Amino acid sequence: MVRWPGFEPGLPAWKAEDFSGMWVSLKEQFEEWLSSQVKAGRLSEETAREYARALKKFFDKYGPHSVGELEKALAKENYKRHLCKALRKFVTFLKSRKIIDPILAEELKESIPIKPTKESEVRISTEELLEAWEYHKKHSDEDTQLFFKILVFSGARLRAVHKMLTQFEPERLIILPNFPNVAKYALLERHGNKAAIFIYMPAELVEEIRSVRIKEATIRKRLAYGRVNASTIRKWHATFLSRKGVKDHVINYIQSRVKRSIL
């Protein structure tokens, strides 16, 4: 393998044909590197754990050595987005440790494409949202209804709402002194540019907020109704605010995309 100038790894000179071998020898270092990414705010703890689990399962099942074997294995897995993201993160780790050079890293990433999500193109209407709410009022439990209302009124990510309700601390929920009709819950976490510092909601919801015990995957499934789900609700929320004349940077702040001093 032709190496990038200055690449003199202390580990054996790995080849693209030894992809599985790199995983076997470096998985512990990779997990330590993921932990450093979490500490740096570039990755959530849950995502780091999911990446490690996905890669262990993938390499245990297929053990691909060559790029060709890697591509065949990914094809059998239908290029699952989370798996591909985990593999690309592993490639980034290998490049950061100068185990492979930047050229090989890019070549490997070309073999690990991230499929676009169909969901990202879905835009639900207010009518669809109201229909979903009527369904949940009649057929869903109180926990599901609570999640639904918070998602609609806050525009927050489901993961953030799930953390708020499953790790609920009443002292973190306050009504804004200058905006008494608005409440916010402090999550105090940030993942790269996907910050999740506060969840904003109408103050009238405060009395309903309580501790809930449910898995994120479970509530995600329960919330789904037709095209309405946690992700499309968030997009609807942003569109709704935009149509009401709210500036983009304010919407980004409310939905915790960026850290700004607005409220």
Descriptive account of the structure:
The protein is mainly alpha-helical and 263 residues long. It has two domains: 16-110, no CATH class; 121-254, Intergrase catalytic core (hpI Integrase, Chain A, Orthogonal Bundle), CATH 1.10.443.10. It has eleven helices and three strands, in the order H-H-H-H-H-H-H-H-E-E-E-H-H-H. Strands 1-2-3 form a three-stranded antiparallel β-sheet. The radius of gyration is 22 Å and the shape is elongated. 24% of the residues are buried. Mean pLDDT is 86; it is low at 1-14 and 258-263.
Helix percentage? 40-55%
Q: What letter string, H or E per element, gives the SSE order?
A: HHHHHHHHEEEHHH
Report the mean per-residue pLDDT as an integer: 86
* DSSP strand tally: 3
CATH architecture of the largest domain: Orthogonal Bundle
What gap, in angstroms, lies between the N and C termini?
A: 54 Å
The oligomeric state is single chain
List the helices and strands and how they pair.
Elements lengths: L18 H21 L5 H18 L4 H10 L4 H16 L5 H9 L15 H14 L2 H13 L3 H9 L6 E4 L2 E13 L2 E9 L13 H8 L6 H14 L4 H7 L9
Antiparallel strand pairs: 1-2, 2-3
Helix pairs in contact: 1-2, 2-4, 4-5, 7-10
Features:
263 residues, 11 helices, 2 domains, mainly alpha, disordered N terminus, three-stranded antiparallel β-sheet, hpI Integrase, Chain A
Summarize the structure in short.
By secondary structure, this protein is mainly alpha-helical.
